[in-house]
Amino acid sequence: MTRLTTDPTTWGALNAHDPTVVRGDDGSWYMFSTDAAVGIDEIPAGVHVRTSPDLVEWTFVGTALDGVPGPAAALTGARGLWAPEVVRWPTSGGARWHMYYSASTFGSRTSVIGLATAASPAGPWTDAGPVVTTTHAVDGHNAIDAAVVFDRAGRPWLTYGSFFGGIHILPLDARTGFAEKPGEVGTLIARRPASVDGAVEGAYIVYRPEEDRFVLFVSYDSLFDTYSVRVAAAAQVTGPYVDAQGRALTDVTDEDPDAVGTKILGGHRFAGGAAWIAPGHNSVFRDAGRLFVVHHVRRADDPARHEAQIRRVHVTASGWPLVSPHPFAGYDAERLDASEPVSGDWHVIRFDPAERGVVESVRLPIVAAAHTDGQALTTPLIVGTPDGDVVLDAVVFGAFDPVAQRAVPAFSGLDAEGVVWTGSKAVAA
């Protein structure tokens, strides 16, 4: 096992947990993440900040705040901050930046979502105080894991919550960034049954004008080993959010706790590559018209170690956002040398909603009428399995294969049961 250095400037994307990514007016990318690290004596506190010129190489530059702000520390006893959400905030005097951070302790509902503001993601950041608070002995919901979405009219909404009482959404005051009605819990938009300890958190909503609907990303199960990312969509920001099979994320049962929510990413391993577990707590961002998710993940052979990965998001013909099977390695790295047929042998992964472990890729034939030059292309795919052919509503695109060390065609798609398949075209030896 590799012991990580105590020098954070050498971490890169290692030790990033619950990440969010924004682009500043200076052209730099900024990643904000939980105060977390392994293998070091003292973890810097105050929201970890990294910068990158290209979304690939990241440099730790410090913390946004000088430790846990006093009011949040006094209420919760937290020694670090969790799951920051950073968003460009429109004002009459020009855009500013808001950071919503969480302060809590593991397993407790005595929690605070606080607000800090700055003129730039580079800071300096000034704490403005608590936005939502909960108390373990009183409240059934939990004030952590904040995210902000603007509705069609530009009204800001705060999504938050975790295990305990599920995911809620409430309106924010567009001028101050605080809750319109202090003390309001908001509308419940996602939950899990008691049989899995209500295990849902890390919610993030993005509005997609292309389909004129809101897409909710959430993480199911344990951040330590079984996280997976699920999606659902709604016509209104307050829901109801339904998965690809039309099932609402609030309509769950103890008998089948994994059925609801379209699983787009989970533990997996491609032949010859690393086994990744517990991908989750993602946020979503755009680079011009390109959509990305950033999430943390762990190595199956060293599960204490966590790091951030960024993946391209591609959308099927039916409007469902799915993620690349491979982490983003740069635009040039995913360009194919030449157009080629989609048909051929592929390394394929099926994200069974009930599977909490590592899914191994299987080499299977795929048939399609299309050719690909690496640009995203929606097309039906026919996957030949030992149990018969499976037809997918898929999108094919270029991606960098870390095993083959080259750009290859990749795909993600949905079958008739709403199960996501993803894969990477096999490279001839």
From TrEMBL:
Pfam families: Glyco_hydro_43. CDD domains: GH43_Arb43a-like. It comes from the Bacteria. Belongs to the glycosyl hydrolase 43 family. This is Arabinan endo-1,5-alpha-L-arabinosidase. Gene3D superfamilies: Glycosyl hydrolase domain, family 43. The keyword Hydrolase applies. The active site is at D18 (proton acceptor), E201 (proton donor). GO terms for biological process: carbohydrate metabolic process. GO terms for molecular function: hydrolase activity, hydrolyzing O-glycosyl compounds. InterPro entries: GH43_arabinanases, Glyco_hydro_43, Glyco_hydro_beta-prop_sf. Pathway: Glycan metabolism; L-arabinan degradation. The record marks D145 as: Important for catalytic activity, responsible for pKa modulation of the active site Glu and correct orientation of both the proton donor and substrate. Keywords: Glycosidase, Hydrolase.
